[in-house]
Every structure is written in C-alpha cells, then in structure tokens.
Write a structure and sequence with these properties.
It is a single chain. By secondary structure, the protein is α+β, with helices and mostly antiparallel strands. It has 3 domains: 4-141, Beta-Lactamase (2-Layer Sandwich), CATH 3.30.450; 237-288; 292-440, Heat Shock Protein 90 (2-Layer Sandwich). It contains 9 helices and 12 strands. It binds adenosine-5'-diphosphate and magnesium ion. Adenosine-5'-diphosphate binds next to helix 8 and helix 9.
Length: 445
C-alpha cells in the first residue's frame, strides 16, 4: 500500500524540521560532552592537588612517616577509587600504584582498560621523595555515557513526535484536499451546485476553497446566463420567425404583383430578427465579462456632455427637451463605449416611452464615495409594482408595445452596470421615471 501522507508537502516540511532538530540535538550533545569532560577533569585535578598538599603538609610537619600515614589513611577511606604513590628513589613507600618514573604536574596514566584511565597530579615533596595522587576516570566516563543516553532518548522522542506531527498535519491536509477534489469531481459529474466545504478558519486552504467557490459561482452565473439567452432566443425568435413564414406563405398564394411588397415586409422582418439576435448576443458578451480588459479611468462629466450633444437634436425633433447637470463626482474605471451604450438606452427610453413636451434630465453627482448618474423624465412613469420586471430580458409594458424596441434596452443597461460593479435601479417616488446608476469610484493607486 502506498502511504499517501508520506508524499504530501506538509509531511516533507515536518521531515525537514525533524532533521534540523535532530542535527541540533546532536551538536548540542557534542558540546555538552566536551564541556562536562573538561569540567570533570579540572575538578579531579583540583582534588588531586589538594591530596598532594595534605601529604606535603604531613611531611613538612612531622616527616616521612606522617606522609606515609596520610597516604595510607586516604587509601583506607571507603568507596574511593583514588590512587596514591609515595616513592623514594626506586622504592615504593606507600600507595596502590607500582613504582613509576616521576612526573610533576597533571599526569595521566593508562588504567586497566580505556575507561579506567587514571588522572592525577605528581610532585616532589623533597628532593628524591616523589608523591602522586589521582583518581579513576571511569566515573567521568559513566556520567558521559548517561548524557549520551539521555540525548539519544531525546533524539528518538523528537524524531517520533516530528513523524507523528507530520503525519497528523498531512492527514488533515489530505482530508481537505480530498474534499476539494471530491467537490470538483461532483461538479464534473454534473452537480453544478456542489461547493468545496469551508471551515471558517480563514487559513490558506480556507481562502483557497473560498476563491474556488467564488469562481464556481461565477461560472454557474455565466452558464445560467447562457441558458437564459438560449431560452430567450428559442422562445422569442419563434414569434417573428413564424410571422415571417406566414407572410411568405400568404404571398405565395397572392397575385404576383403583391410579391414585391411581401418581400419588403419579409426583409424588414428579417432585419428585426437579426437586430434582436445581435442585441441578445451583445448582452451575453457583456455578461461574459470579457470586455473588462478594456477598462480605463473615466470621468463621467464629459461623457454626459457627449450624450447631451448626441441626443439633443433627436430629443428636440421628437418634441422633448434634454438638459444635463453635472456636479463634482469621483472618476470611475470603465469602458466608455459601453457606458455610452447604456446611457443611450436610457435616453432612448425616455424619448420613446413618454409623450411630447416631456423634459429629460441627465444628472451626475457624488453619492458617498460613488459616482451617481441619473437619467430622469417627467413623463407618465411606471407603476411601482412593475419596477422589478422592467430589467427582465424582453419585458415590455403593455402600454409601450406599439413603440419600437425589443424589451432589451434595460437588460443591456443592467448587464453593463453589473460589468462595472455598479448598482442600477429605478428611483422610487420620482415624478415621472428615473433610473440611477451608482458607479464605484476608481481606486487610487
Ligand atoms: N422613461 C420611461 N418611461 C416610461 N416607461 C419606460 C421608460 N423607460 C422604460 N420604460 C418601460 O420599460 C420597458 C422596458 O424598457 P426596455 O428594456 O428599454 O425595452 P424597450 O424600450 O425595448 O421596450 C419599456 O417597454 C417601457 O414600458
Ligand atoms: Mg428601450
């Protein structure tokens, strides 16, 4: 069986940390060993010097016999591992070491085995009278073995903990990445509503899951839009196309002289269908969000001025009056051509769906930190309960059916607003009809 957690990044990281930790335990152990070894040896040499001083004091005070006495008493002390030698010329006077070549200062003698090295101090009490006091290093070696053992346990425990920790961390990581994979697979299998579970801990995996979920939401919205458009095309092209067909059929049975008129009607019907097609596809394209790449920093005041120039004459020609009032407003980020398209739709509506003599007003102002554009008129307006429906694709009020249009002007405007992150809506309680678009201000960089 392949153990999966061994192959995760989390486990790899914990293994590296465990390695670094183990290495530092080793280095620390070595340092402790060197330091304690030196300290132990220093201490033993101090003890030995003290012993030599005692023997010397005995000799200085009461002569050779006292020095011998001191050595023998020291040897008789219970549980000691000390070594002594009192030697005159080539004769041992007292002690438990064989006669040796006198050496003064710190002396190290080989013991019975490597761990039984004898460390001590040698000195001449008087010319020709040599004394040595030392002790077995095996205690030092035993203490050091203890330290090494403790370090080894520590080392093993740390390694075990690191492996356990690594396995635990990787397992939870794996569990969550598996959940992501499961959600993705469910979506691939057609469950478009499946989402990656979010724990609410705001950690990196949570944020990743959140972002993927947002992406999935976006994709779902796009697919829903696409479905909607396909539906709209299927349903709403049927009427004009069947009218076209009826017209053509009727023309076939009619006298040949009327064919030209029938063909004209058919052509204009076809144009209408093509225009409807183009409008629907345009909405789909805007909702797809592809045009956001063309966004630039934009001041709305000149755009409004441009709209007034563009529509002033048309409005007057239709017996309307068009005015504009621009106050200070923050710059936005957007696609100028699309914003012009949106405002054109709103102004065209105000011209088409209101009686002669109506005044149309374009206004720009600041609403908190947003730029507010309002297109209003003092015409008959729309009853409150219908406001929600106006933005539905292909929705037209009964009263406006005789006016030109396909009921796509406001849905296009809404798609453009959404592309800009702007809120669009009918202003409630306006005298006449007013639509306001609130654009977020461009972020200053
Ligand atoms: N300024 C207005 N005054 C009155 N009614 C309006 C106004 N603007 C829009 N409407 C209503 O909203 C409906 C939807 O508008 P729109 O989506 O532009 O479609 P269209 O203009 O093609 O009918 C219109 O059919 C009309 O009934
Ligand atoms: Mg319209």
């Amino acid at each position: 069986m392949r153990i999966r957690f061994l192959h995760t990044e989390a486990f790899r990281l914990s293994a590296i940390y465990a390695g670094v930790f183990a290495l530092s335990v080793l280095v620390l152990g070595a340092i402790v060993l060197v330091i304690t070894d030196r300290a132990f040896r220093d201490q033993m040499l101090q003890f030995s010097s003290a012993d030599i001083a005692t023997i010397q004091a005995g000799y200085d005070g009461e002569g050779l016999d006292e020095a011998r006495e001191v050595v023998e008493q020291s040897l008789a002390a219970p549980g000691t591992s000390d070594y002594f030698l009192l030697q005159q010329g080539k004769t041992r006077l007292a002690g438990n070491l064989p006669v040796m070549t006198p050496q003064t200062g710190p002396v190290s003698l080989p013991g019975s085995s490597p761990s039984h090295e004898v460390l001590g101090v040698g000195a001449f009490l008087a010319p020709g009278l040599y004394a040595f006091a030392g002790s077995d290093l095996y205690r030092v070696h035993k203490a050091q073995a203890h330290i090494v053992q403790t370090m080894a346990w520590l080392f093993a425990a740390a390694l075990l903990l690191a492996i356990l920790g690594g396995a635990l961390v990787s397992r939870s990581f794996l569990r969550r990445s598996d959940a992501m994979a499961r959600a993705c697979r469910a979506i691939m299998d057609g469950d478009l509503k499946a989402r990656i579970p979010v724990r609410g801990t705001q950690d990196e995996l949570d944020r990743l899951a959140g972002t993927i979920n947002e992406m999935l939401d976006r994709i779902a919205t796009l697919m829903e839009n696409l479905r909607q458009i396909t539906n709209d095309i299927a349903h709403d092209l049927r009427t004009p196309v069947s009218h076209l067909r009826q017209g053509l059929e009727r023309a076939r049975t009619d006298a040949v002289e009327t064919h030209s008129a029938a063909l004209d009607a058919a052509i204009s019907k076809t144009d209408e269908i093509l225009a409807l097609f183009a409008a629907l596809l345009r909405i789909a394209q805007i909702e797809g969000g592809a045009r956001r790449a063309a966004f630039t920093a934009l001041n709305l005041a000149p755009v409004l001025e441009h709209m007034r120039e563009m529509f002033g004459a048309v409005a007057e020609g239709a017996g309307h009056h068009l005015t504009s009032a621009a106050r200070d407003a923050p710059a936005i980020r957007g696609d100028r051509a699309l914003i012009i398209q949106m405002l054109s739709n709103l102004i065209e509506n105000a011209i088409l769906h209101t009686p002669e003599g109506t005044t149309i007003t374009l206004a720009l102002s600041q609403d908190q930190d947003r730029a507010a554009v309002t297109v209003s008129d003092d015409g008959p307006g729309v009853p409150r309960e219908e406001h929600g429906k106006l933005f539905q694709r292909l929705y037209r009020r009964e009263a406006s059916r005789t006016n030109p249009g396909y009921g796509l002007g406001l849905s296009t405007a809404q798609a453009i607003a959404e592309l800009h992150g702007a809120d669009i809506g009918v202003v409630p309680g306006a005298a006449g009809f007013a639509i306001r678009v609130l654009f977020p201000a461009a972020r200053k960089s």
